[in-house]
Design a protein that fits this description.
There is one protein chain. The protein is mainly alpha-helical and 323 residues long. It has 2 domains: 1-19 and 55-161; 173-323, Glycosyltransferase (Alpha/alpha barrel), CATH 1.50.10. The strands form 4 sheets. A 3-stranded antiparallel sheet has the order 7-8-9. Strands 1-2 form a two-stranded antiparallel ribbon. It is built from 9 helices and 9 strands. The chain starts with a helix and ends with a helix. It has helices spanning 2-8, 59-75, 80-96, 115-135, 141-159, 194-206, 234-246, 250-261, 287-321; strands at 32-33, 47-48, 160-161, 166-167, 208-209, 212-213, 232-233, 273-274, 280-281.
Length: 323
């Protein structure tokens, strides 16, 4: 939180943040290719730095505000100084949530109206409003509420494809995106909402390989500006587990979760992806994946214990009422 606080003290003039920084807070992260290196199993090009630092990824504001909200709730109360910087950030979201961006997957094929980005803009405004109400902070609640509601309606009207029966990757495609599994996890929709259930089913049909989940299917409907194929995305598999858990489909969730556990290495760590041959690929170890693992495990464990407790209570009640 100290690191985030420092970044929020260094907002751009329009109230925005850079997409990523060095761990020491540096802004300049130039991307350079190293052609003399072959990469793991010839996975060229090998790069250092990250050109995505200059991209627009509006979803990050939802992630940041959700983190601040939970820190204030379970950690320590945030300062007034941080809150005033967050107000500038929330106003930036109000001004820009309707813009296309590169999205969570850092695509290099052009900006789109990604559904995930819109959802996370809703999260940013929603958590800002909740935080202001909980702490009695001053803020432009009227505008934040108005734009939050507009964002919600926009996603429901343009992000939902009736013909496909699912929330799609962006407003101009019929392709699915596993990032939309996050919707019930951030309380954007109920996990048992018919639209979410249908999206879950379409995801299982179109984006899975056994128990593993692709983030999207590369093709004309979902071009990402990158060459080659990719494996399944481990974080998305854990998102699927958690979405199934919240929908009450515990048998499916447990089966996928336990299968996924078998794909870790001997240290129980995961890379970014799992290949078609069940080999770990990409960034290793990837923090994103392990956040997904912890969250999925916690929610699945709680749901299974709750169900077992209900079964035990029912049995006890039957025992005491029978003659």
């Amino acid at each position: 939180m100290e690191w985030l606080n420092a970044r929020c003290n260094d907002l751009n003039p329009d109230g925005s943040l850079q997409l990523m920084y060095g761990i020491d807070g540096r802004r300049d992260i130039p991307e350079t290719e190293l052609p003399h290196l072959d990469g793991y199993q010839s996975s060229k090009p090998v790069r250092i730095g990250n050109a995505a630092a200059k991209q627009l990824q509006l979803d990050m504001y939802g992630t940041l505000m959700d983190a601040v909200f939970h820190y204030n709730k379970y950690g320590s109360s945030i300062s007034f100084g941080l809150w005033m910087n967050l107000c500038r950030l929330l106003d930036y979201v109000c001004n820009n949530w309707e813009s296309p961006d590169e999205g969570i997957w850092e695509v290099r094929g052009g900006r789109r109206h990604f559904v995930y980005s819109k959802v996370m803009c809703w999260v940013a405004l929603d958590r800002g409003i909740r935080l202001a109400d909980q702490r009695g902070f001053p803020g432009n609640r009227g505008r934040w509420t108005h734009e939050r509601d507009r964002t919600y309606i926009d996603v429901m009207e343009r992000g939902w494809n009736e013909q496909i029966g699912a929330f799609v990757q962006h407003y101009d495609t019929t392709a699915l995106d596993a990032a939309n599994l996050i919707m019930p996890l951030v309380f954007f929709v109920s996990p048992t909402d018919p639209r979410m259930i249908s999206t879950l089913n379409r995801t299982l049909e179109q984006l899975t390989m056994g128990s593993l989940v692709y983030r999207y299917r590369i093709g004309e409907a979902a071009p990402d500006g990158l060459e080659g194929d990719e494996g399944t995305f481990s974080m998305c598999t854990f998102w699927l587990v958690e979405a199934l858990t919240k929908a009450g489909r515990l048998q499916e969730a447990r089966l996928i979760f336990e299968k996924m556990l078998s794909y870790s290495n001997h240290l129980r760590l995961y890379a970014e992806e799992v290949s078609h041959t069940v080999e770990q690929l990409g960034n290793f170890p990837q923090a994103f994946t392990h956040f997904g693992l912890i969250s999925a495990a916690t929610n699945l464990d709680h749901a299974l214990n709750t169900r077992q407790g209900n079964i035990t209570m029912t049995r006890r009640t039957r025992t005491t009422t029978e003659p």
